[in-house]
Structure formats: C-alpha cells, structure tokens
Amino acid sequence: MTNIAILGFGVVGGGVADVILKNNDTIARKTGEHIHIKYILDLREFPDHPLGDRVVHDIGVILSDPEVTVVAEMMGGAHPAYDYSRAALEAGKHVVTSNKEVVATFGAELQEIAAAHHVRYLFEASVGGGIPIIRPMSSCLAANQLFEVDGILNGTTNYILTQMIRAGKSFEDALSEAQKKGYAERNPKADIEGIDACRKICILSALAFGKSFSPDDIHTEGITKITAEDVAAAEMYGGVIKLIGRAGLSNTEDPESDVFMLVAPHVILHDNPLSSVDDVFNSILVRGNAVGDVMFYGRGAGNLPTASAVVADIIEILSHKETDVFVPAWTKASADALFCIEALPYAFLVRMEAGDYMAAAAAIRAAYPDAEILTAADDFKGTIAFVTPLTTEKALRDAFPTPLLSVIRVMP
Ligand code: HSE
C-alpha cells in the first residue's frame, strides 16, 4: 500500500479522491498495490465527507510522516503551492500536480530539486486536463526533434467563442453563460485574458524545446476584444476564431534557433482540424521531424478528467519504483532566446473604419496588392474587412498607422 497526501480539497482534489476510491482495485491490479489517502491538507473541514477524518491543516504533519511517499498538489495559485511542493521534494517525497501556474513558473527548479532527491515531479494534469499530452510528448515522441506545438488550451474561452460563432452571442453574454455553467474559474480574468493558456503553452514549449521562458515574457492576448463582427468576418474568409497557444522553432531545421511563442486569437480555416474543436474541448497539435503531425483531443477541464491525469501520475510513480535517476525535462532560458513576435510572418484579418469604400479599397491595395477584401461594396456600412498576404505585424502597423478596429492572425 502506498500512502499519499492530497494538498487542496477543491474541485480537482475532490476528484482525485473520488477516482482513487472508485478505482482502487483496478489500480492495484495494474500496480500491485492500493493507494491510501492518509492526509488531506485544506483550510476547511469536511465533516460530512467519508475522508473527513483525514483532514489536517499543517503541512508539517505530512512532511514529517515517512509513510507518505507521494504528495498530490491541487491547491492552485503559486503560493503556498510552490513552497509546499518544494518542501515535499526536499523531504524525499514524489510530487504530482495539476497546478499549471507552478509548473510554468517554477518547473525547471522543482524538477532539479526532485532529481537531486531521487524523486519525481510529474504534471500530466497541468495541460489539457484529462488529455494525455505530457507523457506522450516526453516519451512516445522522444525520437523526434519537435518543431511546433499549437493548441486550443483553454476550455472556458473555447466555450465562449463557440457560443459567439454558433449562436451569434456577444462576448459578454457568452461569458456569463460560461460562468453560470461553472466553466469559468472563480476569477475569469486568467481564462479570458489568455493567462491560463499562456501558462500551458509555456509548459508545452519547455517540454518540446528543452528550455522554459517566464509566462510574463510571452506575448499574450485574450478574447475580450473579439466581437460578433470579427466572427462574421472570419466566417466570410472561411474560418472560425479560436484562442491559440502557439510555440515553435524560428528555424525548423535548427533546434538551437530562437523559440517563438504567443497566445492570441487566430482565424482557423475550416480545413484545419483545430477549427472543429468546440465547446470546452481542448486540442493540441504537435509537429515532429519523424512523426509529422500528431493531434490530441479531449476534455481539457473538469474534476474527473483532470483527476484522471493526476492519478495516472501516481500510478506512473508506483509502476517505476525501482528507478531513482531522473533528468529534468527543461532548463530555464532568458527572454533573449525568444523570437520577436512582431517579426513573425502571418497573414492578418483586419477590420478598419472607412469613410469611403473605394478610397479604403485603394489604400488596402496600395499597401498589399494581393490582399483579399472581404466586405463587398454593396454591404459597406462604414467598416471594411480584409486579409493581408503573409506579412509581419510591424509592417502592417507601419502601413496603417491609424487605429484599426481589429487585427487577428490567420493560422498558417
Ligand atoms: N480554466 C481552465 C479552462 C481549467 O477553462 O481550460 C483547466 O485548466
């Protein structure tokens, strides 16, 4: 029997307890032993829960108990989650987590501490909820030089955009529906402003390219400025708007080249499989030089899908008890090794105000002779939408120095 401690008995922590209680015999059949939840650390009491007697309020109880070999951290937030994880690793306990903020910000350091103490720091649940993505990328695709990772990484924003696309809802109405359904987190800011997706693409990028960047240094746009008019313009162009986390090598042939990384709304053309990933689902496309393109799809949020990934990490630890040499998956890099996003080639969907259709069309053609003007002269009502050929954001802004209504990247 393996004794574990759960840190944080919220939605995911409760889900982990549920999965273990429900599937313990199945787990034992696969690993040879049952999991015993010895402690649950939380500020609250849970007198009516079957595991209510395991609740403690002092991390010291867990750290000083040699019987606890695995700590599952599902507290959320950077502190004290980072501090407790670090202390558990230093006490020689394995740590598994769903906490993308801690993994994205402190992942390199915590993996080094884990390696030094011959224990593991695993985080399958930190990206894509229940979708297996971390271990497939680090094990099954290990033979490849990966050169790009693109994903719909946030279920809440994908739900909101799906409602805007399918039901013609405004951003505000779609957000309040997402909140009513319990999809949006307590503070929706991290979802709708792209912060949650940024942490996730930072983790995937670190795994793919072996170096991690601070989420604070990543170009991050959310979906708060997306309007029904943008959605309609994307549809005219033959696509849908999705919030995409994108990271890649600036030179696909050179693994040492600078990494580009951003989170931003993108127009995804209908022939790209990411265009049909709707509602709260997530999907991740990984490109490797041997395997080609691989796509992962599933439920990116929710208590049981996320718990499924957390418990899988515990099972991974139980299944490899004999191993005690671990190599961190990435090291920290400085922002100097990031490719400048303003110089990254993209086509852009642009909407701008115009007094006169013919004059605006002439200005667009003067800047970009190959631009595709989406708004027909007959439908002109003071705004004009067009798509540029491949250019850079800097060149676009130089060509149209007056404020534009919207500038949305088109996924290559
Ligand atoms: N708020 C996140 C989402 C939860 O909507 O995807 C999972 O990380």
Which cofactor or ligand species appear? L-homoserine
Supply the CATH architecture of the largest domain.
3-Layer(aba) Sandwich
Radius of gyration: 23 Å
Given the structure, what is the number of helices? 13
- According to CATH, the homologous superfamily of the largest domain is NAD(P)-binding Rossmann-like Domain
Counting DSSP E segments of at least 2 residues, the number of strands comes to 18
**Mean pLDDT, all residues:** 96
What is the class of the largest domain in the CATH system? Alpha Beta
Shape: elongated
The helix content, as a percent range, equals 25-40%
Q: What is the third-level CATH name, the topology of the largest domain?
A: Rossmann fold
Low-confidence stretches: none
Q: Distance between termini?
A: 51 Å
Give the number of domains.
3
Largest sheet: 10 strands, mixed
In summary, what is this structure?
By secondary structure, this protein is of the alpha/beta class.
Descriptive report:
The chain is an alpha/beta fold and 412 residues long. It has 13 helices and 18 strands. The chain has three domains: 2-130 and 304-332, 3-Layer(aba) Sandwich (Rossmann fold), CATH 3.40.50; 141-298, 2-Layer Sandwich (Dihydrodipicolinate Reductase, domain 2), CATH 3.30.360; 345-410, Alpha-Beta Plaits (2-Layer Sandwich). The protein has helices at residues 11-31, 59-63, 81-90, 100-116, 134-140, 155-166, 171-180, 189-192, 195-209, 228-237, 303-319, 357-367, 393-399; strands spanning 2-7, 35-41, 55-56, 68-73, 94-97, 121-122, 146-152, 211-212, 219-220, 239-249, 259-269, 281-288, 292-299, 331-332, 347-353, 372-373, 383-387, 406-410. Strands 7, 9, 10, 11, 12, 13, 15, 16, 17 and 18 form a ten-stranded mixed β-sheet that branches. The mean pLDDT is 96. Bound molecules: L-homoserine.
